[in-house]
Design brief:
The chain is α+β, with helices and mostly antiparallel strands and 162 residues long. The protein contains four helices and six strands; from the N terminus they run αααββαββββ. Strands 1-2-4-5-6-3 form a six-stranded antiparallel sheet.
């Protein structure tokens, strides 16, 4: 069974064919991507590749995520950066997806309704308390970069005082 429980990079490297869906299922079971807004945003997101510290997704932009000009809404794109950034933190070996400290998105070109895009997330660093990733959104047909995001997360678990 492929586990994305925050194991070592060696454990993550053991992901084999067919285990990607199982591993992503575990990520979803932990609550990421299952909240109503998250589910609305990521419905239709396809996992193309997972390896230690890197994940590649493809996505056809649905009309529900577009603005009046039929371009993907910036908030929806930022939400994808958040969720995909969290996924790659998990893939990178963290035991938790943490809490966002900072999300920055540079919007470089419009993403159109029904357009096929690819989203690549890479771990820059995962420490005991902080993780940082980059997320690049590209037009699938041409590899043109449409947006670039950076996501920093607080990863340490703290006990509730309640």
């Amino acid at each position: 069974m492929a586990k994305l429980e925050g194991g070592s990079v060696d454990q993550m490297a053991k992901l084999e064919d067919g285990s990607v869906d199982e591993a992503m299922g575990e990520w979803h079971e932990r609550g990421v991507g299952t909240r109503p807004f998250d589910a609305l945003t990521v419905a239709g997101l396809r996992v193309d590749a997972i390896e230690p510290g890197r994940a590649l997704f493809s996505f056809t932009v649905p009309a529900r995520l577009t603005n009046t000009r039929k371009h993907m809404h910036g908030g929806a794109l930022a939400s994808l950066v958040d969720l995909v950034g969290s996924a790659v933190i998990f893939v990178g070996g963290s035991a938790t997806t943490g809490v966002s400290l900072d999300i920055t998105v540079s919007y470089l070109n419009a993403v159109h309704a029904n357009e096929e895009i690819e989203i690549e997330a890479k771990v820059l660093s995962i420490g005991e308390m902080i993780g940082c990733v980059t997320v690049e959104v590209r037009r699938k047909a041409t590899s043109e970069v449409l947006a670039h995001g950076r996501h920093t997360k607080y990863l340490a678990t703290i006990a509730s005082k309640m």
